[in-house]
Write a structure and sequence with these properties.
Layout lengths: L7 H7 L1 H12 L8 E5 L5 H9 L4 E6 L2 H7 L7 E5 L11 E7 L8 H11 E12 L5 H11 L20 H9 L5 E8 L2 E3 L2 H12 L1 H4 L4 H19 L6 E3 L2 E8 L6
Parallel strand pairs: 1-2, 1-4, 2-3, 4-5
Antiparallel strand pairs: 5-9, 6-9, 7-8
Helix pairs in contact: 1-8, 2-3, 6-10
């Protein structure tokens, strides 16, 4: 699965709900303050910075494959906070981390068996992973609309070899996946985070960054405006509520797993 290029500044402005979920995830962490933490798919770095505040005697490293995201994130770098342009698929650490954290990113990674093996190897004994990402049933309206628009005669020629960019598993399937990756203890649960965007402008911001990014590189510039406008108009028609908000399904998978051994 290829990597995608995002606009970190636009994403920072359009990712309110991702930040809310991430702060909830961070709030549930048990932190001593001296851990070394890896943030996978750190995006614009907002949540990575929050992690760094929690470990004044530790270190946080944020990874993302998007130059636009890392460029924005690097504005936040500090004494114990660093960002690296790295594809998650190329993760190749040999220990060194007490916690591997990821929020709203890992549904962009196709091979989770490899991901989990790489994370297990990157953890110190007793270290843990804490992930939250999209599960089966996520973005039901957007996926319905974008598939319909992809099939329009004007656009279908662009998607003959298109590879669907997201991995959104069923909860039971992820339990099976984790059980074969060497972790001593793990918990997997599903979450319903369905939400109403406050208005069409907020929903359009989310459609543009990040949802439409995989499609923008497939469609010629001369047809892109029409493709985008079709998706947006059909999304508004499908999701608009009587109060002016726009409803979308957001289903999450919440993962905790610990590696054998005793943390320092």
């Amino acid at each position: 699965m290829g990597t995608f290029e995002f606009d970190g500044v636009k994403y920072r402005g359009a990712s309110t709900h991702q930040k809310e979920w991430g702060l909830d995830l961070i709030g549930g962490l048990e932190i001593r303050g001296d851990e070394r933490i890896l943030d996978l798919g750190c995006g614009d770095g907002t949540l990575t910075e929050q992690l760094a505040v929690l470990v004044p005697a530790g270190e946080v490293v944020g990874l993302d494959a998007s130059e636009g995201m890392i460029r924005t994130a690097k504005e936040l770098e500090g004494e114990n906070l660093h960002f690296e342009l790295t594809d998650i698929d190329a993760l190749d650490y040999q220990g060194g981390f007490d916690l591997i954290f990821s929020n709203a990113a890992l549904h962009w990674v196709g091979d989770h068996a490899r991901l989990l093996r790489n994370c297990h190897r990157a953890l110190n004994p007793g270290g843990a992973i804490r992930f939250n990402f999209a599960a089966d049933g996520n973005c039901a309206h957007f996926f319905r609309v974008v598939r319909e628009v992809m099939a329009y005669p004007r656009f279908e020629r662009y998607f003959g070899d298109f590879v669907w960019p997201w991995f959104m598993p069923k909860i039971e399937a992820y339990v099976d996946l984790l059980s074969g990756c060497g972790f001593a203890d793990f918990q997997v649960r599903g979450e319903n985070r369905d939400r109403n965007f406050p208005d069409t402008e907020a929903m359009i911001g989310w459609i543009d960054q990040p949802s439409l990014v995989p499609f923008a590189r497939e469609v010629d510039e001369k047809d892109w405006c029409a493709f985008r406008c079709n998706v947006i108009s059909e999304m508004i028609e499908l999701t608009m509520q009587k109060d002016g908000t726009c409803f979308e399904t957001f289903r999450r998978i919440d993962v905790f797993a610990r590696k054998d051994g005793v943390s320092h």
